Structure formats: structure tokens, C-alpha cells
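Can anyone check this?
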Amino acid sequence: MINKLKITFLLGVFAMLFSENVNAQLKKGQLVDGIAAVIGDEIVLESDVEEQMNYGKQQGASTTDRCEFLENLINNKTSGLRS
């Protein structure tokens, strides 16, 4: 019984320390990640679009238009739904 209380207490302390550390890294109003689009029951996150944009830039993509990268992700998701 005492071991369970010790473990619970330590987990609680750890959770409090971790949550304070996360809050310190985020600025007020800063978005962690958002939903860029919903296709059927799947979602495309803003971070997915950013990742594709960064990859495209590294590969020398001719465009950096966010909408085109989002459109490509949506097309990939919808073609996966049709299969």
C-alpha cells in the first residue's frame, strides 16, 4: 500500500514538473498543431503541410505555395480512400 502511494506521489510530482516545462516553452496563443483539412475520417495536420513544404524546398520545388502542398496532400488522402 505504501509503495503504491509513493509511486502515485512521484508520478504526480513528475507530471507537475513536466507540465510546467511544456507551458514555459509555449507562448501565449501559440498553436501547437492544427487541422488543415478533413478528408472522410482522416485529417491533414498543419505540421504535415509544413513538412511537405520543407521537403519540397529541399528537393528544389518550383513553388512554395502552401495551398498547392495542401492540395497534393488532400489528393493523396482521397486516392487512398478510393483504393
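Reply from J.R.: I decoded it. Helices lie at 2-25, 46-58, 66-82.
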